Amino acid sequence: MRRLTTTIAAAGAVLAIAGAGSMIRAQQPASRASSAAPAGQADLILSNGKIITVDERFTIAQAVAIRGDRVLAVGTNQEITRLAGPTTRRIDLGGKAVTPGLIDNHMHLLRAGNTWLKELRFDGVESRKQAIEMMRARAKTEGPGGWVFNIGGWAHQQFADDPKPFTRDELDRIAPDNPVALQESYYQVFLNSRALEAFGIKAGAPDPGDFVKGSIKRDAAGKPTGVIMGDIAATRPVAAKLPKVPPDQLEASSLALVKDMNRAGLTTFGVAGCNADVLEIFQKWKAQGHLNVRVFCIGGASAGSPEQVERSLPQIAQMKLYQGDEFIDNVVFGESVYTPLHDPMFALRSDPKPEQLALWRRMAMEIAKAGLPLHVHAELHNTIDGFLDQIDAVNKEYPIKNLRWALAHVNQINAPQIERMKKLGMYAAVHPWAVINGGIMHEGFGDGAFDMPPLATIQNSGINWGFGSDGTAANQTLPFTTLYFAVTGKMPGGMKVIRQTISREDALIAHTRKNAFLVFQEDSLGAIQPGKLADLVVLDRDYLTIPADQIKDIRPVMTMIGGRIAYDNGSFSSTR
Ligand SMILES: [Zn+2]
Question: How far is the CA of 372 from the centre of ligand 1 (A)?
Fold first, then answer.
């Protein structure tokens, strides 16, 4: 349980800001990676920039010195230059802004590797015209008969030029020779005629048995419209039929995924469900010294029936966390406990039954007894109340105060519930589904959707909270799109979907430093600070000063993980 203490006093990480100068320097360079430079000297210096450190004082600096995999010092150009030796590499940032590597506290990262190379992703695409061009191009490279598909991460409301659903005829015209399946979040899937044919969905014939009853939409004459609709339950069986990459391409697909994440500025993830086959690949990359994301697994023995609850209890008691390191580790039980209480994504209300909550409590009791942290899917008002009632009861027997229990997603949370969580010493993993689902949520919840999530209420409550996307299906994955949403209340495409916005500083803190806490790495990650790991992102424009509507357009030009360049767009060259 070493990381459950709240001390931030790792060796070399605590610095006083000296009165004479502003430079913040590690007292003992804490680098564990081999370093070429003599003691006290930097391996790499980034200077002439705007370093948004996101430390506790939100310090802005000019330059940063890196030694091995850690930050050696942060300060003015002059101060940092003094740390250069004959072997120090230098990068002139040319005035560009730098932030810590972005952390997503809840993403289904490893699962996405199974399809990423084949998926045509629409994350952040704001034009239908562009989406159509992308489909045409993909149909061409796939050739006749090849699938053109994606599994979530977008919704048609993001297309500013023409925000309407795709029709079967339209998709037939775009790709007449290819099956097309476009999954809009977990809400619905748009199929063309070739895809319907591939799935055996026909006019005048009953629905194939492996689709959820009623999910295949037909017109008055019984002709399938191409729409499959009905939340996760209806879309999952469709996704399961789409081609996965063959086993010999799983590594290439996962590598493409990691590159896309680095390109977006992401360096660390809380990973919901660490699939063993993909994790093995990540372990291999780590051993070879080129793993470019940090993976903190959210996993555990969830149960779907009373019998499974009995079976999961001894597994909970045996569960071991924190056997890994700063690249890969298991850190928290989640994201489901008793799955009948797992809120469907587009349900408008929930009705948890006392006997279900009793089973949930049995498991939660065991989790607390084992001293484990918890990160649990909790979305709707009644579910959150039900869980908090159980946690109150658990807390009386096994206090959870220092166990970092978090409710995850929490789009429908309200102020009294946040207060209850604070009293219990809990945290909020906020996953704003409205970033792409805002339009859909407004159809379901009406004006109530304007407070889903209630970001300002959460921020002003003082609860410790951080951002996750819950991608790659439920949501898009680009952190600067999430930050744009948090600051403007708008979806990509510009539709205003929430009214409780927060400051850019608070939004960035929630996507970096606060998230370091939520992935149990606050000693090492989340800020550009001496002693912390040198994970940082150089931006093409200044997040703090550009017009808010442009935050989504920020493109990282360089992403660094542990002092290594994981991604760059070629605009920097280093010199000695
Ligand atoms: Zn979830």
Answer: 19
